[in-house]
């Protein structure tokens, strides 16, 4: 079974603010997923209460997951995704729509073609549009390192560093694998679904090697904001020369580790109660969850600099045991 | 301030007779603009900043600095500079070049004080992040161009006030005090812009009020300050004008620095930002949401520790300007029973806002001022004209005032394509926010002006605060933030902001949770940010708690930087907004230095301008711990401001304000 998690529009929710104490940059994804689950659960809860056929609970959510999720074939939407009422307020031309797709560690690159199309399709459906302006892809395991870039010309493939999230640490793709993935994006570009293509966390060497293998060139390279004042000259010059814009981001590479997802969906205080606990009993789903990809979308009203719609979808496989 | 209208200004007794007439025509003009522009949609974000300078003139030989009164000569030089005109710049009220496609040279304006100069960008800024990087260099260019059109001994300085304004021999050229317009015992009439509007404004305020304006600033009590302090500069034996009796009737208060003329307030330099909203509803929302931020930004930009040669016990200029244009009569002030006047008025026409105007469902009745004074007849006219109650109330509140300067030529016929009568009232209501309808005759949209900030010594700081406010507005609109607190609390905060080091030590009422209720239904997740007028947001089902539970007292640091358990902080909100945008590394790095300045001003790592200047005075070798700022100290303060504006702390001087990094 495939699980499709969504945040709906997170603008205007408090989950978007990572407090100074919370350093992890995937806080936004996790807390906005949690907030969306909670809000949908609560409205179902209230409905039940007004209908007079629900048991009152003191604060904790007790409604079964089936009430607030929706199964379509082998897909389970968590929560029930309502594509009818989403969308943008003004016509398409008013917006800049940026999408960032995170490929996750330990997922075979051979699946990326399908994953990319799935992810983009969900975003198009959510925003009621037929194209996006910029797709940035994030390969698992690579992380730009200003020091490496400056002082060494060692093979970058060996220096890929993963954010210390604990589990799911996979290896780094070789350049040919990345190039293969890139062809999927080029196809989407040719179909007119994606305007511009971009990458995240590429140093100048990795960038130059990938460039040699692309037909549609990337126009954006995203660097983590904590490094934005120490971007090495080498990369700045290279990017300028190649017409690539260096943008900032605040995402971590391993955005949705398996353990985090299990906790999010699991039973207990902080979980959504979709997955059953390890003990027998309970009505949740049983099995192992494996996150497949995460996609973030942002629709900005161009000449006003207002973020009107922002959200995430995440997909995971449930391997029933 | 525009200079366009010319004619014969009426003296107060005549102006008073036609006040009702001007108001009625002003309301008709307002209705006409509102009807034309209420459906105006999808205007881009455009914004502009205003930098105001004092023009000083050094006399190095005598270690003396004076205010230069050559405003008109400098403006003439700017207006006739062919290169400047060719580049699109100049003086709009006299002559300017056509704005260019790309870079456009800045433009310059007269201000109330004849020692002042105002500079604005040649065309408005957009939200393109690269535009934001142009702001600081443009401010520096303005300063450079201004200087190039001055004499060798003259300099444009961004201090809020001239330290010894009102002391003997403070202007160049010198003029005798006690002129017929101001009747000030400290300042000559020539201190004001010579255009007939300005002396008339000053004279009619005084006339309407029935005595001179009265500014009493608490003096800073240092170790050797004589106590009780009696302002030693006050002359009790002057008999030129009836108003000379003011001081004999107790106008000068004990332990205060006493000032008696409009120029003491309106001669202050401010940093003002104006935004164009996408439509009237967004403008009304920005007006409301920025309003509670006003006092916080006033405290944060504090830069006014000296008045008339004495250290003051306050850090900001606001109340002095308020009193400098306070035209209320004794009846309106509540000093005498109401007999001839229509109502008691709690605030000066220069004061913090008293209204909220947004049709935001989150605006609770409890936030409004229950004692708001409005002209019910004019309000009814606006309602009859189709305007909604909130907006009609706002304008009917502004229109409780009398027009001060009326030109007899303008009263012949009502021209609904003009806004002169409306602007007569609107632009002499100097509140900390201003809601500006589109002007006739061009494509400009609804605008909101943010007015409380004090000018900073360097353009780095001025750019930082301007850009911070721009980013805050984007965060407000993107996150649909809610800063509402009862408007009387905003007024209280404005007073709080005056205290010495309020930025570090005072607490301000502020809303605890700025986030909107997350929609309960999964189906109602479409944002209202792009919809047309008005946005259909349904009120959340949950019953609202007591208003008092929505806000609490916070320090500026908590409001700006957030607290672990409470308010998220304006800087983290802005950072979060930036994280949602595609920002290039160079821009983000530059913006980080601006946000860092504000973060550190709020947490006390860096000093406010007021604190730095107070420290500078108290450690000056000429200072005798008696609160007196001597000519020599003044000379060094002004020189210091000039040096800091140039070096920005790179030479180590002023690093307490600016840090070391630049």
Automatic annotation (TrEMBL), chain A:
Q: Which Pfam families match?
A: Aldo_ket_red (PF00248)
Q: Where is this region: Disordered?
A: 38-60
Which InterPro entries does the record match to this protein?
Gclm, NAD(P)_OxRdtase_dom_sf, NADP_OxRdtase_dom
Any one cellular component term from GO for this entry?
A: glutamate-cysteine ligase complex
Please give the superkingdom of this protein's source.
Eukaryota
Q: Which SUPFAM superfamilies match?
A: NAD(P)-linked oxidoreductase
State the UniProt keywords alphabetically: Glutathione biosynthesis, Oxidoreductase
- Give a yes or no for keyword Mitochondrion in this entry: no
- Give the pathway listed in the UniProt entry for this protein: Sulfur metabolism; glutathione biosynthesis; glutathione from L-cysteine and L-glutamate: step 1/2
The GO terms this record gives for MF are: enzyme regulator activity; glutamate-cysteine ligase catalytic subunit binding; oxidoreductase activity
Q: Which residues form the NADP-dependent oxidoreductase domain?
A: 90-248
Compositional bias of type Polar residues: which residue ranges? 48-60
Which parts of the chain are coiled coil? Answer: none
State whether keyword Oxidoreductase applies: yes
Biological processes, Gene Ontology terms: glutathione biosynthetic process
Instruction: Note the subunit structure.
Output: Heterodimer of a catalytic heavy chain and a regulatory light chain.
Q: Which family does it belong to?
A: Belongs to the aldo/keto reductase family. Glutamate--cysteine ligase light chain subfamily.
Protein name as annotated: GCS light chain
Species assigned in the record: Rhizodiscina lignyota
Automatic annotation (TrEMBL), chain B:
Q: Which GO terms describe its biological process?
A: glutathione biosynthetic process
- Residue spans with biased composition (Low complexity)? 522-538
User: What Gene3D superfamilies is this protein classified in?
Assistant: 1.10.8.960, 3.30.590.50
Q: Return the similarity comment.
A: Belongs to the glutamate--cysteine ligase type 3 family.
Q: Where is this region: Disordered?
A: 515-544
Which pathway is this protein assigned to?
Sulfur metabolism; glutathione biosynthesis; glutathione from L-cysteine and L-glutamate: step 1/2
- GO molecular function annotations of the record: ATP binding; glutamate-cysteine ligase activity
GO cellular component terms, A-Z: glutamate-cysteine ligase complex
Organism of origin: Rhizodiscina lignyota
Reaction it catalyzes:
L-cysteine + L-glutamate + ATP = gamma-L-glutamyl-L-cysteine + ADP + phosphate + H(+)
Q: What is this protein called?
A: Glutamate--cysteine ligase
């Amino acid at each position: 079974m495939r699980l499709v998690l969504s945040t709906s529009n997170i603008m205007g929710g408090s989950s978007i603010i990572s407090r100074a104490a919370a350093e992890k940059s995937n806080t936004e994804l996790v807390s906005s997923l949690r907030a969306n689950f909670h809000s949908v659960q609560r409205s179902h809860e209230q409905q039940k209460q007004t209908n007079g056929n629900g048991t009152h609970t003191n604060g904790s959510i007790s409604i079964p997951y089936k009430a607030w999720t929706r199964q379509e074939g082998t897909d389970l939407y968590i929560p029930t995704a309502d594509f009818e009422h989403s969308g943008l307020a003004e016509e398409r031309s008013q917006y800049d729509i940026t999408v960032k797709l995170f490929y996750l560690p330990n997922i075979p690159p051979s699946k990326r073609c399908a994953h990319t199309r799935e992810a983009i399709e969900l975003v198009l459906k959510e925003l009621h549009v037929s194209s996006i302006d910029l797709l940035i892809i994030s390969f698992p395991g690579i992380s730009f390192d200003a020091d490496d870039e400056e002082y060494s010309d060692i093979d970058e493939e060996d220096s890929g560093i993963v954010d210390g999230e604990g589990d799911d640490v996979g290896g780094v793709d070789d350049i040919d694998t990345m190039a293969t993935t890139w062809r999927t994006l080029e196809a989407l570009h040719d179909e007119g679904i994606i305007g511009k293509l971009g990458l995240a966390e590429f140093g100048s060497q990795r960038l130059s090697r990938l460039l040699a293998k692309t037909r549609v060139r990337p126009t954006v390279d995203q660097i983590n904001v904590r490094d934005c004042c120490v971007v090495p000259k080498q990369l700045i010059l290279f990017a300028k020369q190649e017409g690539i814009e260096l943008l900032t981001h605040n995402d971590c590479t391993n955005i949705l580790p398996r353990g985090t997802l299990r906790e999010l969906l699991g039973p207990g205080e902080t979980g959504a109660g979709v997955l059953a606990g390890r003990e027998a009993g309970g009505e949740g789903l049983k099995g192992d969850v494996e996150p497949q990809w995460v996609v973030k979308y942002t629709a900005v009203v161009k000449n006003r600099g207002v973020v009107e719609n922002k959200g995430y979808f995440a997909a995971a496989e449930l391997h029933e045991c | 301030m525009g200079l366009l209208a010319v004619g014969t200004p009426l003296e107060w007794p005549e102006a008073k007779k036609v006040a009702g007439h001007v108001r009625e025509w002003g309301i008709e003009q307002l209705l006409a603009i509102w009807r034309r522009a209420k459906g105006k949609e999808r205007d881009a974000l455009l914004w502009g900043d205003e930098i105001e300078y004092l023009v000083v003139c050094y006399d190095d030989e005598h270690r003396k600095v004076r205010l230069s009164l050559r405003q008109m000569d400098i403006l003439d030089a700017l207006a006739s500079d062919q290169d400047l005109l060719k580049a699109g710049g100049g003086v709009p009220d006299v002559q300017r070049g056509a704005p260019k496609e790309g870079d456009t040279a800045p433009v310059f304006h007269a201000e109330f004080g004849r020692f002042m100069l105002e500079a604005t960008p040649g065309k408005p800024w957009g939200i393109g992040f690269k535009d934001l990087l142009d702001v600081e260099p443009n401010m520096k260019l303005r300063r450079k161009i201004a200087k190039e059109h001055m004499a060798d001994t003259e300099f444009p300085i961004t201090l809020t006030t001239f330290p010894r304004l009102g002391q003997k021999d403070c202007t160049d050229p010198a003029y005798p005090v006690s002129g017929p317009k101001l009747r000030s015992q400290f300042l000559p009439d020539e201190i004001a812009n010579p255009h007939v509007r300005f002396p008339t404004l000053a004279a009619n305020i005084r006339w309407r009020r029935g005595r001179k304006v009265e500014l009493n600033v608490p003096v800073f009590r240092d170790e050797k300050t004589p106590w009780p302090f009696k302002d030693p500069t006050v002359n009790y034996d002057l008999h030129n004008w009836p108003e000379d009796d003011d001081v004999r009737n107790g106008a000068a208060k004990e332990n205060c620095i006493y000032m008696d003329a409009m120029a003491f307030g309106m001669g202050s330099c401010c940093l003002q930002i104006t935004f164009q909203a996408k439509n009237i509803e967004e403008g009304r929302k920005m007006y409301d949401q920025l309003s509670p931020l006003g006092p916080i930004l006033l405290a944060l930009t504090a830069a006014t520790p000296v008045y008339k040669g004495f250290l003051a016990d306050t850090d900001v200029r606001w109340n002095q300007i308020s009193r400098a244009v306070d035209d209320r009569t004794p009846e309106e002030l509540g000093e005498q029973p109401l007999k001839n006047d229509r109502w008691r008025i709690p605030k000066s026409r220069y004061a913090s806002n008293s209204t909220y105007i947004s049709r935001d469902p989150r605006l609770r009745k409890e936030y409004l001022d229950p004692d708001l004074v409005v002209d019910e007849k004019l309000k009814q006219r606006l309602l009859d004209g189709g305007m909604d109650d909130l907006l009609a109330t706002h304008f009917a509140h502004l229109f409780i005032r009398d027009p001060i300067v009326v030109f007899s030529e303008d009263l012949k016929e009502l021209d609904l394509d003009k806004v002169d009568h409306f602007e007569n009232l609107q632009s002499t209501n100097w509140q900390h926010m201003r809601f500006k309808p589109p002007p006739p005759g061009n494509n400009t949209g609804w605008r909101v002006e943010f007015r409380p900030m004090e000018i900073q010594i360097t353009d780095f700081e001025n750019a930082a605060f301007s850009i911070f406010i721009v980013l805050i507005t984007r965060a407000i609109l993107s996150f649909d933030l809610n800063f509402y607190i009862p408007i009387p609390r905003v007024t209280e905060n404005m007073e709080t902001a005056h205290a010495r080091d309020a930025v570090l030590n005072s607490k301000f009422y502020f809303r605890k949770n700025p986030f909107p209720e997350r929609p309960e239904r999964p189906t109602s997740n479409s944002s209202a940010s792009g919809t047309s007028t008005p946005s259909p947001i349904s009120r959340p089902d949950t019953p609202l708690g007591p208003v008092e539970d929505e806000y609490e007292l916070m320090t500026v640091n908590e409001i700006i930087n957030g607290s672990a358990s409470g308010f998220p902080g304006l800087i983290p909100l802005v950072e979060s907004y930036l994280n949602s945008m595609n920002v290039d590394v160079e821009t983000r790095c530059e913006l980080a230095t601006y946000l860092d300045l504000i973060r550190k001003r709020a947490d006390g790592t860096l000093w406010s301008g007021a604190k730095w200047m107070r420290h500078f005075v108290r450690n000056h070798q000429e200072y005798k711990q008696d609160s007196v700022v001597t000519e020599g100290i003044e000379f060094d303060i002004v020189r210091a401001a000039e040096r800091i504006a140039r070096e920005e702390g790179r030479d180590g001087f002023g690093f307490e304000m600016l840090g070391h990094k630049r």
